[in-house]
Amino acid sequence: TAATERDVLDVLVIGAGFAGMYAVHAARQAGLEVLCLEAGAGVGGTWYFNRYPGARCDVESIDYSYSFDEDLQNDWVWSERYATQPEILAYINHVAERFDLLRSIRLGTRVATAEWDEAAAVWRVATEAADVHIARHVICATGSLSIPNKPAIPGVDDFEGEVLFTAQWPDTQPSFGGKRVGVVGTGSSGIQSIPLIAQEAAELTVFQRTPNYSVPAFNRKLTEEDQRRIREEYPERRRKSRLSGGGSPYVAYPKTAADCTPEERDAALENGWQTGGVLFGKTFPDQYTDIAANDYAREFAEAKIASIIDDPEVARHLIPRNQPLGAKRICTDSGYFETFNRDNVSLVDLREEPISSIATWGIKTGSASYELDVIVFATGFDALTGALARIDLRGVGGVRIQDVWADGPLTYLGVQVPGFPNLHLVNGPGSPGVLANMVMHAELQVDWILGLIRAADDRGADRVEPRTDVAQKWTAEVGEAAAGTVFVRTDSWYLGSNIEGKPRRFMLYTRGLGTYMSICEEIAASDYEGFVFTSR
Ligand code: NA7
């Protein structure tokens, strides 16, 4: 196809998930000419692709939703404390329609290359269909969990049954009735889908490489009384969330674990457990920084989990024990451990014997064979940097972002990269990202990015980029902050260690969303300290 060139856009957004959709809306509100390119056939990003049974957000629906428009906030009614994927997707589609966003979004359009044109001070962005778009600024809203990890197990292509990936689930729900199903992977996606698949399948075999801590969601329907209270408390809830560590209004117990009496500690942990899910990780303020505090919470969780599982031998395999609680993201489940009490469910511990190959009929470990009709891979993502690395993204002098990031991502504030002028990342490495409520995080970051673009325009500068030294300093700070936490004590996708050959670096800012945004605000107020504005 012949390349077609369009007029110069102010902003080109890559990705129409929560972040990209808000970027489109906010850029339009700021009077900028914006176009968004989205690979999926619909909007929603990760919520478009991850349609597996049981898919839910582990942040409460009333927090994991846009705050930028009060009418939207008050009109939309979430039916459950934790929304299912279909409800989240319905919400995103509603937002797209309500704010007429689709006229600025090209669906089914994957970006292949993005190249900085030094002479013209613009980005040239080409799609896989070789359409070229020219933009002054590019906002990458490419998602943290958007590139599925497909393990290269010998023989994987020989399997004659059905192969499914949770992260690329078919539009029509496959049926498991009467079938022998194997699920590989026990992260959040496995833990959410396993209980539902178990209800339907004739037999379910779970292949677990690393066990995970999972805390019941205590999900429930939201009543009319809840709805009334939510509306009344929303402004205060959002205010608290913006100042918080994780973008939700919850605060830790007012004392460190060490300062509590044993009774107080247990009561705080019980309360944290009943709050449910990933929020249990926030019971004590020092739970992520003091291993002793973490041990209290971990042992409490282990006892709770053990009490759910009937067979102590199965429990021994399902409970992690050797990793700090929350170093891998705590999973939020509805009936996960209970599922292993069913007669049609069995667990294979791959730490004892890894998968050796896949045959036409199923999965082989060293000494055992498992005949299967369906294999579900819930094997995670090339997280945080995977989507950017798949674009041939070239900055000043044709330098590729993969090369600049060969030893791990280098960013200033998680938002800009030296040598890549006018390129902005949302929820990128070096920001709190997935450690916070991504919707609120995206809104705050997009507003900040648009402030930076405005600052450049006000100066008559056609180019803005961070100095290398400030990016190095910020990246070192991100690393130092993480070094003081339990996050670096176990392998995880936060560290890139789930993907072969990826540099092992903790990629997120651990001091919390509120602290992070106050630093960003200070930098904006100091006339964008660390940024260089230039014009041709
Ligand atoms: P995760 O959390 O990365 O989980 C992936 C799981 O798949 C995990 O248990 C992996 O074990 C396992 N895995 C990956 N590759 C293999 C191979 N080759 N063989 C066996 N098992 C394997 O991804 P999710 O999609 O569940 O969740 C991601 C995030 O989405 C989640 O944290 C929420 O924030 C939402 P491993 O631990 O690597 O040993």
From the structure above, extract its key features.
alpha/beta, 20 strands, binds ligand NA7
Task: Kindly describe this structure.
With 536 residues, this protein is of the alpha/beta class. The chain has 15 helices and 20 strands. The protein has helices at residues 18-29, 46-49, 70-75, 85-98, 188-200, 224-243, 262-275, 291-308, 312-318, 336-339, 386-389, 401-404, 438-459, 468-483, 513-525; strands at residues 5-14, 34-37, 105-106, 111-117, 122-127, 132-140, 162-165, 180-184, 203-208, 214-216, 331-333, 345-349, 355-359, 362-365, 369-371, 374-377, 392-394, 423-425, 463-466, 531-534. Strands 1, 2, 3, 4, 5, 6, 17 and 18 form an 8-stranded mixed β-sheet that branches. Strands 7-16-8-9-12 form a 5-stranded parallel β-sheet, with helices on one face. The mean pLDDT is 97. Ligand NA7 binds next to helix 5.
Low-confidence parts: none
Strand element count = 20
* Helix run count: 15
Please estimate the helix content: 25-40%
Quaternary structure annotation: single chain
Coarse structural class: alpha/beta
Biggest sheet character:
8 strands, mixed
Task: Report the sheet-strand fraction.
Answer: 15-25%
Mean pLDDT: 97
Separation of the first and last Cα atoms:
33 Å
Our Rg estimate from Cα atoms comes to 23 Å
Shape: globular
Which kinds of small molecule does this entry bind, naming each only once? ligand NA7
Cofactor: FAD
Keywords: FAD, Flavoprotein, Monooxygenase, NADP, Oxidoreductase
GO molecular function: flavin adenine dinucleotide binding; N,N-dimethylaniline monooxygenase activity; NADP binding
Region (Disordered): 229-249
